[in-house]
Amino acid sequence: MSHKPSVLFVCVHNAGRSQMAAAYLTTLSQGAIEVRSAGSQPAEKVNPAAVQAMAEVGIDMSAEIPKVLTTEAVKDSDVVITMGCGDECPYFPGKRYEDWVLEDPAGKGVDSVRPIRDEIKTRVEALIASLTPAQG
Q1: Which of 61, 81, 89, 116 is catalytic?
Q2: 89 among known catalytic residues
Q3: For a disulfide at 37, which of 9, 31, 81, 92, Cβ 3.0-4.6 Å?
């Protein structure tokens, strides 16, 4: 049985960038990758502009709830990706850590969130390519 790769996206509030990245990875990997997202200081709800920006590309994030970052979530993930927010993650050897430096969509309207969303999609597609064997 092959091990399904798992990815954890982390940003402070787990309300914008990490939620969009998780939603894209879930959708684009079609279940081939286990996806988690969390934040060290989770917000009460997901950024409405991020929800709207993702809805425009056919991905519904409206039911997502920001989650608190746990050591277990990091330990259970093969790849840990921070969103340029300087969040400190527990470090475990043998994990792949990446920092995606992305503008923070907090407090911005959907017009400002779209380019962040599109940048996240590009990075997620590259991530999927690096984690899944080529088909065919």
Answers
A1: 89
A2: yes
A3: 9
